[in-house]
Structures are given as C-alpha cells and as structure tokens.
Specification:
By secondary structure, the protein is an alpha/beta fold. The chain has 14 helices and 21 strands. The protein has helices at residues 26-40, 65-84, 94-100, 102-105, 122-132, 178-182, 190-202, 232-241, 260-268, 285-290, 297-310, 329-342, 359-363, 370-393, and strands spanning 16-22, 44-46, 55-60, 89-93, 112-114, 135-137, 160-164, 166-167, 186-187, 207-211, 219-221, 229-231, 247-251, 275-277, 315-322, 346-351, 399-407, 414-419, 424-428, 437-445, 449-454. Strands 2-1-3-4-5-6 form a six-stranded parallel sheet, with helices on both faces. The two termini are 38 Å apart. The structure holds S-adenosyl-L-homocysteine, iron/sulfur cluster and FE3-S4 cluster. Residues 63-64, 175-176, 178, 213-214, 252, 254, 279, 281, 319, 321, 350, 352-353, 355 line the site of S-adenosyl-L-homocysteine.
Length: 459
Amino acid sequence: MNKFYSVRPVLDKNLKQLYIETYGCQMNVNDSEVVLSLLQKEGYSLCENISEADLILVNTCSIRDNAEQRIWGRLDVFRLEKKKRPGVLVGILGCMAERLKEKLLEHPAVDLVAGPDSYRDLGKLIKALSTDGKQMNTILSSEETYADISPVRMDRNGVSAFISIMRGCNNMCSYCVVPYVRGRERSRNPESILKEATDLINNGYREINLLGQNVDSYMWKDPEKPEECVNFASLLRMVAELDPEIRVRFSTSHPKDISDELIYTMSEYPNICRHIHLPVQSGNDRILEKMNRKYDRKKYLERVAKIREVMPDCAISTDIIAGFCSETEEEHQDTMSIMREVGYDSAFMFQYSMRPDTKAYRHFQDDVPPETKTRRLNEIIALQNELSAESNKKCIGRIFEVMIEGFSKRSDKEMFGRTSQNKVCVFPANGEKPGDKVMIKVNSCTSATLLGERIDINQ
Ligand code: SAH
Ligand code: SF4
Ligand code: F3S
C-alpha cells in the first residue's frame, strides 16, 4: 500500500453502509467527498447500491427548477426503499436542503436535512435520529472551508481530482440562487490547498482541478500578516510549481474579474491547461446589465482577445442562458452573434428558470413564453454544435499531448483522454494506463470527440 494516507474509500461490508448520490456542479461532487471523509470517521463505509445502504445521502442542486424536480422524484424511490427495509435513513444535503429546509424535512422519506456548511455536524445529527427523531441544520457560515478535511475521492479513474479553493459567492447575478444557498464568499488557506494537492500527487493523481464559483476573486489574507495576501494567479503558480508533470485546471472564471496577471501566469506554465471556462450568459448589453453580470459585450470580447493574444492555443468555453426575463428576438440574436464571434470550443446551455428569492424573481417578469425559450435554446445548441465541429476540425492533422483517463465507453480496444484544451480524444489502446501522457495525431473528429493515433515524436 501507499506510504501516504489513502485518499480512496475504505470499503468494508462489516461497517455501516453509506450510499451517496450527487447532483449539480463539481463543487457538490467535491463536497460529497468531504462528507464521505467525515462519515468514514463515524464508522461508515461507502457502498454502491441503495439496497445495501443503512444511510442514503443525496447531495442536491437548486440551480434550475428541473434539478429540484429530479430530487423530488428520487424521494419517492427512497420512500419505497424505506418501506421495504425499515430502519434505512435518508438525508438530504446541499443546495436544495439549504433552500427548502422544513419543506424537505416534512417529506415522509426524509430523516435529515443538512445545508452545505453543516457537514461537520452530520455525525451528531445522525446519532440524534434514533432518540430525537428528524434532524436539521441549515446554518450558513462565513468561515467554513473544510480546509482541514481530506476529501475521500470517489472518482473511478484515479487520475483527476477536484480541490475547492473557496466557497460561496458574492456576485448576486439576478437569476442565480447560489449566493442564497451557499452563503458569502470565503477563500481557503493556500497552505491547506497545497497540502491537499501534494497528497493527491503522492497518491497517483495526475490532474488537479481548482474549483470556485468565481476563482478570479480568490483572495487569502493571513489574519496574522494581513499585508501578505495570495490572489488566484499566485495560488495557481504555487500549485503548478508543485510538479511540472501534473496538469492543473480551474473553473469558473468570471469575465468581470479575470486579470492579465492570471492570463500571463497561465502562459508561463505549460502544465496549466490551455482552457478557460468564461461564462458569457448573454451577448446583449441590456440583458447583461439586467443579469447584474457587471461586464458588457465589449469588455467580454476584450478579455477573449487578450487570452488569444497571449495564448493562441487556449480553448474557451461558456455558459449561456436562453430566454432571460424580457429578452427580445434581437437580443437573442446578439447571443448567437457573440457565440460566432468568439467561436466557443464548447458550451453549457440552459433555458432560463425562475428561482425563488432571487432579484429576478422579486423584480422581473418571467415573460418569455416556454416555447420561445425552447426554440431559442435549440438554436443556440445547433449553433454550438457547428462551432464545436469547426473547432475540432481545426485539430485534424495536428499532434496533441493527451492525458489518458481510461478505456473508451464503446470499446476496450480504445482508450480516451483529454488534450490540454479539454477536448476528449479517442485512440487505439496499446498497453497504456490511466494517467499516462501520450502524443496523439488527430486523424478525424465528430463535434464531440477527436479521433487519432499514437505517434512516436522521435521518429
Ligand atoms: N459561478 C458560475 C456559474 C455557476 S451556475 C458563473 O458565474 O459562471 C452554472 C450555470 O448555470 C451558470 O453559468 C448559468 O449559465 C446557469 N444558471 C444559473 N442560474 C440559472 C437559472 N436561474 N436558469 C437557467 N440557468 C441558470
Ligand atoms: Fe451565480 Fe453569478 Fe455567483 Fe456564478 S457568479 S454562482 S452565476 S451569482
Ligand atoms: Fe447546484 Fe449548488 Fe452547484 S445550486 S450548481 S449544486 S452550488
């Protein structure tokens, strides 16, 4: 075994069995790993099926209504499981727990509700269930970063791992529920981030993904030496310098905050991946203002131009919302045109979903008809498919360093990995293993994948 402590789950059928289901963003995935770490200390072991579980935990997301509807559907499944096997406990964690509190606790399938800042309390809450009935803690903290908890990794490949560098969000985009369910923004002590990264590297991980809702506003001030602060560019530099063979990624960047210093820092380190996720949301200035994004189209395009000037090979991806309150057809066309202008490599695209308590909910009308939202979203998706295909076609004939993540889903004769630009690349297997870096010449592509073959660059 490894001489360092294990970052992988301890699997022991003699212990109490814990099943964890995770929805939402990468930060939730990482939070589930924190929860597993805390509950292993309470004597639980991870299991793979609901039918084996003594305790079922669901880490939830509130970002759009359909994310919440899925969870309500799952609760009916857990209710049946509890009927079959009385004594099984069900806990709801995460953003929906924070938002709905008692409304979730009242559901017959639910024993426990715990918000994102209360996971240290889980052991105590679970113990209290047997004597005091249903339990809840949804208190948000302005300090909790779980800095001293070493997450237990649940990924399958052992190659790529997340590290949360901050929690919460202060940006108050008018459509967004995150500031309400995750609380105030707080940055984590860089020492604890470097320690976690070092432990991952010592356990064989080859790629580190730094997470925050707005990584560009990361700022650590040492309470004892307040004049010495660490911003995101310096944190990224420190992580990249741990080991030049380890790839470093990060998300999410905010167009209002991404600095020249960060862009130049990336360009200095070949192991910082050439990919920036830079959500634009809309290409229209009136809508951006109404969304409270604090940049306009011109400023966004200026940031893109800077990235391209310093790192011509850097991929840029985005998030887009179709049909925000009062969006006109012309304003939708502005989103389509900024997509063409930037030529995004990939995108996450959504229909606007009104979230209770947000500024948009309180002050604006959700007045774009659902069929119009759907049509606009479909136009955006069709355009992005074209742009992704174009971006992939440009890779044909070129050679990329690919870090292998595993066997391809379709065949065990093929492996897949990612380029620095985050493009998935599939190639014939020849004894490689996950974590290896290989040089791949791209021969063809689809809009989602590059297809290539290994080459020996010394030839
Ligand atoms: N912090 C990140 C985004 C986190 S949420 C950022 O600022 O970019 C991920 C994405 O969900 C957002 O970028 C946005 O495109 C989408 N989203 C957030 N709230 C939404 C809502 N109410 N309806 C539809 N999409 C939404
Ligand atoms: Fe939501 Fe805006 Fe914060 Fe992103 S930056 S999490 S979209 S409020
Ligand atoms: Fe969803 Fe919460 Fe993430 S609302 S997107 S899980 S921060």
